[in-house]
Amino acid sequence: MKIFKVGDSQKAICESCQSIENTTFQLRDVPFSDESGTVKNVLVGVCDKCDEVVIIPQQSAPMINKQLCALRKPIESKVPAHFIDMLNNACAELGAKPDFSNALIKYYVHMLSNEAMPADKLKTYLKSNLAAGKSDKRISLKSSILRDEITTLRSKAHIKSTSGVIKAVVLKIHDDIQVHPQPNLINQLKGVVAAVS
Ligand SMILES: [Zn+2]
To answer: pLDDT band at residue 49, thresholds of 50, 70 and 90?
Structure first.
């Protein structure tokens, strides 16, 4: 990947001018194609003749994705109150604060959707005693890849709803960390805790 600097120039086809023009790289606010918002202060190639944005270089993609992600709505799931307690206790067991709960769920969804952990038994957790209870607490998760991973996991584990997937994942976390502790997994997770705390 070629990295451009502010002030670099390159020839490119400008759609407004309908010709090959010289472009200069500058920081600009660029509107999304569906006009739902603007990406602020991103390096783009601007036509010297008509001042339109002509090139969005590959190096700007992570910055654009970060701003797109911030605008996305979180994934909300309703769970019974004891699910939050199970998560908080799993975090304590790992030496983490309760606010590590969301990272823990995202780690599991990632591992399960990528087959780094088997997902076939996930559904059985939803038939356990602990799965029951009135869902009056909320888990709110934000991530750029989580939505796709949950969709993958729903089909792999044959669980219909997103809330069902989140509930099964929390029950698996409780099982792996507190009921039948998995030493290797717990050590890996302690490494993640150290990296984010
Ligand atoms: Zn132009």
So the answer is: very high
